[in-house]
Here is the input.
Amino acid sequence: MKPYIHDDFLLQTDTARRLYHTYAADWPIYDYHCHLPPADVANDRRFANLSEIWLEGDHYKWRAMRTNGVPEQYCTGDAKPYDKFLAYARTVPKTLRNPLYHWSHLELKRYFDCDLAINEENAPRIWEIANEQLASPEFSAHGILKKFKVALVCTTDDPVDSLEHHRSIAASDLSTKIYPAFRPDAAMRVDDPAAFGSWCDRLASASGMATDTFAGFVNALESRHQFFHEQGCRLSDHGLDHAFADFCDDATASAIFDKVRGGTAATPLEHRQFATWVMVWSGTRDHARGWVKQLHIGALRNNNSLALRTLGRDTGFDSIGDDQQARTLSRYLDHLAYAGNLPPTILYNLNPADNYLFATMIGNFQDGTRPGRMQYGSGWWFLDQREGMRWQLDALSNLGLLSRFVGMLTDSRSFMSYPRHEYFRRLLCDILGAEMESGELPHDETLVGGMIADICYHNAVAYFDMKPGSFA
Here is the structure.
């Protein structure tokens, strides 16, 4: 019997199979947005067991396990590693039609060449097979990056980060290029004076500049932006409920800063004004240094306040938000563009109701200076599954140029996520192959295959000012 994960997995037509194996499968991975811990790369982390590499930090799996009635101790708690893995193995058969069923079996096959179905019966043998291989040097952090031909990784880094791990990686012989990305979300949290003040103190320590005044705060931010640039950063990132467009002058921003540093929370309007000021400053600096800006918009985070208090952030209690996005996003982009300060920008939405909104918004700010200057980003978070990725591809195809798309990313904290690039490439080829066979696209495999190769690799290399490693 054919194994579940086979050479033509998800490829429903002969044309799709030829497209995938000829034009998509072998390209290196250009992973321009993820959350891999730089320390794990710098230290060439070795993983003690399958639970550690597969379940640690993976809120997708934790959400499924909780839904399946698994107690928290087997998700984020202190249960033994094998017991956590066994709890997940019992959950996987219940994930039919959830992307975790595809992803988990694809990961098991690609990492460990294991064709066993993931379930309670097979769990002991899977544990044994995986752990035996994890003990070898080929499964260290560096070994995994090499195995999957990961040419480039961009992590997501707070401006106060020392980037010591990035400097260590840059000095090593690792073939994969690892770059930081500048994410100043904490600089906008003036609704929480304690958190904002603590972060400003860390900014002062990182920059060597006092941040007890607004001028000092701005100088420190500029110093960190320059420092990130010197470490190879060419990319910023922002995680926002919605874009901010309550514009204010420096004097107003300074007064808000002084108020919050004095211990009084900003009002909702002041919060929006200060956040807008930071976003305009960031856009202007990104443009000046030739960076790309990423806007991840639309998450409703930390919905479960008890879980936030007991487990912390990023533990699987976030969802899709329903903020009105169009007017503030348009006004923010227009403000930068009118002043000549709009950097190349990638927009990601989390609410699928906004697909056409975002796909048309990028067209308002293309300026003919470079192909695909404004990008509608890949399916993100809850939308980085088969249906969500297809929706994104269809919206971009209908309203923009799919041929200029910079492709997939992992957006993951896990070294086990690299088969998601394969998953995306298979889906892309399946869609295009079916349309070629139906006559919707010309039966010109060189033409369509060239576009596939561009989306899988070449467009990203051309778009970002960050050279990939030697897998290219």
